[in-house]
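Re: the 556-residue chain
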Amino acid sequence: MRRSLAPLVLLAGLTFLVGIGAPAMSDSDEAFYAEASREMVESGDWLTPYYDYEPRFQKPILYYWVTAATFAVTGPGEAAARLWSALSGMALVFITAGVARRWYDDDTALLAGAIVATSFGYVALARMALPDLPLACFVTGTIAATLIAVGDRVARPRQWLFVAAVSGALGFLTKGPLAIALPAIVVAPIVAIERRSSRLVLADVIAAAALFVLLATPWYLAMWWRHGTPYLESFFVGDNLERFATDRFNEPRPFWYYLPVVAGGIAPWSPFLLLGTGATLRLLTGGGGPGSLETRLAIWIVAPLLLFTLSVGKQPRYVLPLLPPLSLLVAHAITERVRSMRGLDGGLYRARPNRGLQAASIAAGALLLGTAVLLYRARPLFVELPPWQPTAAAAVIGVAGLAVVLTALSRAWRRAPWVLAVGSAIALPALVLGVLGGGREDAVVRAAAAVRTARRADEAIGVSRVFVRNLVFYTGIRTTDLITDEQVVAFMSQAGRALVVIPLADLERVEAASAMKAVRLAEFASVNEAGLRLRSFLWPDPARDIQRIVLVANRE
């Protein structure tokens, strides 16, 4: 494992840490966590999270705690808000590599860790202040440690069971019951199938359960003591059961929804998933055998996928815990095919390439090339960036993709996966920075500065259909969410002076339908990220995909 450590640290550092503070806090769920953590430091209340100065019961406390602690040291900022998500991504790299080394060998461990470090799903989520990547880390750690304790016949199974208990407790404090449900539906069938004798005794299991309860429950009990039963109902019923069983939080999506999401999450390695079809067929026909590693990985992948598929509320980031076992499957499939070209002395005995590995490598390189083309075509949309930045990013990604394709077609074809790993470690940060990071200030930052300049005393601040979640983080001022046109009119009709941030098109519609006339104070251009579709990259249209945003007042 020591041989794998330095390259994995380098790859993970490039993909998870470089430029994490470059894009502004997005108008998405990450603004909830960043702002709630900022308010935690401001108020000194480290028990109850608050967002926009109102109690926020939707998620447990751990991500708020670690982010608030970072803010207390460094001050609020984008990089500090995303640090723990990025570090969780790095931890996942080493957990996956450690499992691969234990179950396979050093070569598979290095490649499996590299796949996790360069998968788009992890790279994208590591750059968002969300608890989903930490949850994936804790779930993976819980599953791996439990399987090692129960099924690998290790010398000290109790220690591994305690590791699983600590990891499960941290996951429970990060996202709630899902941190226990996912390991349970994976581990239970594997243990039932393998039926291996274990050195664990009942006392070890009881001690591990007690450790979990000791770590996981005190904060929940304190919240119940302070806020009563409504908190328990809001979190366990509303934010967990209803999120799973109803469309209250997310609109219903088709049963196959997660298949392209998983393929996109492990991109650019997704073409290599086809290399695992042989192992899947062997498993379905009984060739894998009970207790085989193929069976373990299949259950680890399929059981959570079925759970998420049955859920009414679906979100792309929910399937992040599937990527580590998929990375193990892909890494093993690749190393098997490379070794099939070698004799007992380790030397090559067939000059002809493995067609499956070669085709997958070419397809992965083509994915990078296609991404470069789309990014280059979409240059007119990146109004918040210097013009050279998306062009340079497209060039970097294109060169990486071309290098993979040429390597796959050459005599060094077996090295194409490693060229893909290195190329992706450079290309993926270039993609994120080329689209989101900029040399100019993002529109929300400029809007916040304009609000602070225009605000004379304690005027109320309204936000309508733009910067609804993240403006409060940059102003430090409570905002009012104005959902309908009628709410905008009512807010602007109050006796005192009021400020509103609103898309120009919406303002013009409201003014045309009412007697309201707003005083325009500032105007900004911003990419409408929620409205971006594939067509936006194939046929970019600034008039359609870029919105004008204005700061207005109801009086001078």
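The chain has three domains: 2-247, 353-435, 443-553.
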